[in-house]
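User: I'm writing a tutorial on reading structure tokens. Could you give me a worked example: one chain, its sequence, then its tokens, then a sentence or two explaining what the tokens reveal?
Assistant: Sure. Here is the example chain.
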Amino acid sequence: MNKIRTRFAPSPTGLLHIGSLRTALYAYALAKHRKGNFILRIEDTDQKRQVEGATEALQETLKKFDLFWDEFYIQSERQKTGIYRKAAEKFIDDGHAFYCQCKAKNAKEEGFSNVLRDPCRDKGLDSGAIKLKVPENKVLTYHDFVHKKDISWNTDDVYDATLLKSDGFPTYHLAAMVDDIDMDITHILRGHDWLPSTPVHLLVFEYLGKGRPEIGHLTDILSPVTGKKLSKRRDSVFVEQFLQEGYLPEALLNFVMLLGWAPKDNSEVFTLPEFVKKFDMEGFQEANPKFLTDKLDWFNGFYIRKLTDEELCKKFRLFSSDFEAVDEDRQIQITGLVKDRIKKISDIDGLAGFFWKTPKVDEKLFGENYKKHLTSAVRIIENLEDWNLEKLNGDLTANIKEKGYKVGDFFMDLRIAVAGSKFTPPVNDSIIILGKKEVLTRLRRIV
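And here are its predicted structure tokens:
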């Protein structure tokens, strides 16, 4: 087999979508599994939709996941060479395209007819937008390597698509296919929403006369809320959103790996090199995967706990200025304490904020004997000469037994008084980190 060459070809219209990250990942793995090349191509020929800075942002996001490309292209730069116009005009000469001067309402550009057979196709015009002249009653077929089946259309149902706009810029239908041939792309992976346009692309590939790459359409990722395709309006869909919420790149990437692909041995945890090594096109799944946030949280927790305390501490500093203001020794102590409980890096303030900010305590949270419990705790802590966890545990436990308190009720009241919540890291460990003076201040304020 010839060297595999794949491409990821986003439009610079905003932040990277989670589905686009999956496309990039699969294209990367498909190429690298066979020592091939992964190409990044920015498809910016629709200048009206382009967002300033989006190209650079897309590149930076891919780098965060170690998805580095071997070659890089920008279509608007290639457009200046005339490569797309040359292809479109050859289609005219060969009888596979025609000029169209139809205009949409309130638009200056030409080529806007929206009927199946364009009224300009037999007029013999010599200027305007260039549109594909779809032949009659022809069957178009390709084998989808993701869905593992042949898919066909009759051209009587395929519309005359615009190839080159009157402003000289190509549409996706022409530019992407010309580039795929020119760049020797062997396999195209793209979203399922491009499937209806595939018969147009099959004709373009045919008329270019140089064969065509293998084509695969990935499944739709479904919303955990609605069960429908992920929506920008309803769901979190942008990669940078997830990173800003405190998900680690390696966790998010591992989660995305399994949204439409599965290994033969049903294993789940992969680094990027491990995924590339194991990647197999037979692993593509035909059923639409659901974006399960609980599963993403599990992956994130798994990768958080693989970090050293020092590595995790650095990440906490990036997310919390309050945490960063704590002295370094205490930062490490707090990090070790919350490491097994935290789901996202951004949870640090919510889970450990009581270490640097005295909490507001809702006395309704306490049990009926809370004043007795806290009064005993004050007395024990006041008299504690050796400030260490073993001594604190022993003296509190002995007092609970002596007074006949219920262990769970006692420590819950102590937890609420110290941290302001029922859900915190271990309370005695937290007391040691807070220090005797601060803990006694908090307890006395209540009792």
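What the tokens reveal: The chain has four domains: 5-76+221-293, 81-218, 307-355, 363-446. Strands lie at 5-8, 37-42, 71-74, 97-100, 129-132, 139-144, 149-154, 162-164, 187-191, 214-218.
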